[in-house]
From TrEMBL:
Basic and acidic residues bias (residue ranges): 32-46
Coiled-coil ranges (or none): none
Low complexity bias spans: 50-60
GO annotations of cellular component type: cytosol; GARP complex
Name under which the protein is recorded: Exocyst complex component SEC5
GO biological process: retrograde transport, endosome to Golgi
Chain residue ranges for the region called Disordered: 1-60, 445-474
Amino acid sequence: DGGGGGGGERSNDDGLGLDDEEEATSATAIRKRYERERRQRERDALEASGQGRAARGMEGAADAAAKTDFRGLISSCFEPHMGGYVAAEERELCEAVARLVAGEKWHREENSDNSVLTSATQLFLQMKRSLKRCSRMTRGNALFQLHVSFKKVLRRYAEAIWNAAAPKGADAAVASDGAAAAMVAAATTGALSPATTWKVKVEDDMLARVCLVVETADYVASTLYGLAEAVRGFVDEEMAGGVEFEDVEECFVDLKARGATLLVLAVETRLDDALTALGAVSWDQYHEIGDESAYVGEVAAVLRGALPLISSILGEANESYIVDKLFGSFTARWRWAVARCRRVSEAGLQQLLLDTQVVRSNLLSCVTSGASGGKRLVEKEMGRAEAMLKAAAAPAEALEMLLPDATSVERLRVTEMRGGGSGGDGGGSGGGVLRRMAEARAGAAASMAERMKQARAAMTSSSSGGVSGAGKEK
């Protein structure tokens, strides 16, 4: 029956109740179990003899060796002897400085957005290459000492470009602290002639060089932070904190300041002839009021020659800084050059006032949009000069109204300006003098307008005649 048939099948399978595949699998499992037991017996035997502990120790040492960083182990053996290599790198960079400065073109590169000397960018590129070469061999003390060499090279570069740009006498002019301030102070005290140590003659080509030095010094000072970060990224961590370029940055900030001072003094030297001419006029014998004086034209010519050149090279920030300094010093000198005139006639006061207003207008026309400080200085100093002239032409009691905050020196100068000959008693007519000064200025302006009108009419007539003549010939 069914039950008997089932019992017969199990007896054919040796009573295990498994088919052939299950039986084979069971045999494999049994073999694996016996293999594991055999290996465990062998390990137990090794443990008993002490060889197992040695084997595990060797395995641990191998693991530790695999995790060990061998980088720098060989090169560290040569670290005490790397001084010669660093010295060679420094020597090569110093030679590069001399070569690059000697081959500098000293003009702004075409299609360039800045006025940085090519030698500066090339020097930084060579220092970058030197840094990479050294970092391949060591990141220890030799690399740290290389950054010290970089600082020496950069100081040498600052000296090299200054010597190549500054004309003879420039060092003496800018050596004293506050050379421009001392120049103004000499004028303020009423000295007959300011000290001449600040004067320095700079031709246009050298003026352009100084401008390039100012821009390059600005570039180097701002790039040093990136160089310091690059060195810190290569040198060993325990030395990274000692990497700094602050002293070199100060060196280039000082170079920029010296260049800016030299630019101001160079233009002031050119303007000095006009101030000398102003003081040489016999104002007590001055009779006729005309257009602006010849020295006013000299001031305009100097400004037209120097400022566009400076503006074409300097960036806006540096240009505004220098223009502010220049106008601040020159307007103060102009005011005191006017104030040193003594016993000025009525016509002389009127002429000086007219000249001051023209110079003021010329200066304001040169002030850039970013040089707001320069505009304020011009308005303040030239306005003060005009007030002193008006006070000299008015009765003595009008001084408090025209110059309520006058200093003792200003009061003295106004008093000495009064009393000129042949043009009036310098204050006897009081308001009448001021009125005549205003009328004279208006008359001069009307005369100038009339001459311009006549010139335009002559040009129109000449143009019409030319056209007419051409028509007749045709």
